[in-house]
Amino acid sequence: MTRDLYDERPYTEHAYAETHPGRIAAVARLSGWTPPPVATARILELGCGRGGNLLPIAAGLPGATLVGVDGSSRQIDEARQVADDAGISNVSFVRGRFEDVELAEGSFDYVICHGVLSWIRETARPVLLGRMAGALSDNGLACVSFNVLPGWYERLAARDWLRFSASLGQRVEDAGASLAWLGAQLAPEHADARGHLAAVARRLDETGPAYAFHEYLAPEHHPLLVGAFLDEASAAGMSYLGDAVPATTSLDLLPSEARERARALAPAAAQQLLDFVRCTAFRRALLVRADAARTAAWQTSPDLQPAAIRRLRLASRLRPRDSRVPGARQEAFTDGDVVVQVSDPPTRRALHELASVAPRALGFDDLARRALLADATETAQSSLASELFDLWIAAGGLDLYDHDPAVTSRAGERPVACPVARWHAQHGGVVTNRLHQEVLIPDTIVRWVLARLDGTRTRQDLAREARALDGNGAVSDVELEQLVEASVDRLTACGLLVQA
Ligand SMILES: C[S@@+](CC[C@H](N)C(=O)[O-])C[C@H]1O[C@@H](n2cnc3c(N)ncnc32)[C@H](O)[C@@H]1O
């Protein structure tokens, strides 16, 4: 029996916001595809690892049924343990290889396969794609992410070096130092190669040994051109809908000459040209069944339909940067990184409305009622839809959903946090909010409070528990209550509290 590398060293555990069915369905609507209802969806994740992605989805969609499949028994055991401890009963985890596991035809509305396709033998790819196609329901959607060329070419030299060094006995923990050593040996004329090695070393520093092991040392890791992937998906009976993060593959965001050239090509060739121009290293493709696409007379198009935003819900991470200056023609909004200047008055009002209900999402109609005059014309509504679409695709900071993420902006007397986030706050690991975004919580006290927000405690109860821990009385009662209050506010703002 061959050893399982993921039993030996489990993979990093993360949630990927763009793989949430509510986000996938939103992109599908913008592409003219009618997605299956999200709240009651049947969801499959192939290569689910320790459940870092699937468990928070399950917790937020209690009416959905979820199945995670992975070949590593150690990772599946861990996923089951978290599900049990956190009381998540609508997800089951199956230890099995995707080649053999039983999947009834057409039995899943959403199939997620993140970070698997380019990590397996090349000959296994058609099998994996075939299993996905077979599992998809009629109008179901698959989200497949993988490493691509040409972006990965410049990292492959680092991989070859690290595999060679490992064959000489080097430990994975020393991978970064080893890359630095090689970089220092290179002659001055190889400055570009040194830069590439240094970039990989920085990435390994951010991600840790599990990532280094499976990305850079594992025997099977085969980034491919997106054109080759789309041919294989087509051979498996699936059509390309677009990317789960459309801003990364929008032809409109290319330099004008490349845009003109890409627009003259068929969709798959246009995407390949785009990857050469952008030196893409990672893709998140959305696929549908080709026979269902034919029946619906639906065709892949490089253009999304901004009007479809009117059927979606919007949440905003953008906040007004300065207090409003009456009469100013522009207003700055920021998500902490990017600053966007917005001049259209209804769009500005919409962003203020979204900021006032954050982290909740508002349906477009509700938002339009708040941001436009009561008797707003159809033209005004279309114009708002189009402005918000442009902001979403070009600047980020807005998130679109086809479901209502069960998140609250009011903590209530006995606050309740997402149970999977509570589990991670207690046992360690990445914390994921109800919008399926990872949240950094470096403060010990905030993590401590999060772990206890199960709806049984008031803020005063929490302050009393904290007092019992503070043996030497270094912090006053009032300070403790303030700390708890500030922690609950912070967790609410981060989208970690749910409707009780
Ligand atoms: C690189 S990890 C990605 C894990 C997770 N999806 C993520 O992106 O964080 C690849 C995962 O696929 C699983 N895997 C690889 N080949 C498999 C197969 N033939 N059948 C089932 N699972 C497999 C591994 O056990 C591992 O958990």
Q: What this model shows, in words?
A:
This protein has 500 residues and is of the alpha/beta class. It folds into four domains: 5-150 and 223-295, Rossmann fold; 153-217; 313-401, Arc Repressor Mutant, subunit A (Orthogonal Bundle); 419-493, no CATH class. It is built from 20 helices and 16 strands. Strand 2, helix 4 and strand 3 form a beta-alpha-beta unit. Helix 11 (256-263) packs antiparallel against helix 12 and helix 17 (419-427) crosses helix 18. S-adenosylmethionine binds at residues 6, 11, 14, 47-49, 69-72, 75, 97-99, 114-116, 119-120, 214.
**N-to-C terminal Cα separation, in Å?**
48 Å
Shape: globular
Please, what is the CATH homologous superfamily of the largest domain? Vaccinia Virus protein VP39
Instruction: Provide the CATH top-level class of the largest domain.
Output: Alpha Beta
Q: List the ions, cofactors and other small molecules found in this model.
A: S-adenosylmethionine
CATH architecture of the largest domain: 3-Layer(aba) Sandwich
The CATH topology of the largest domain, please?
Rossmann fold
Primary descriptors:
three-stranded antiparallel β-sheet, binds S-adenosylmethionine, Rossmann fold, alpha/beta, 16 strands, 500 residues, single chain, globular, Arc Repressor Mutant, subunit A
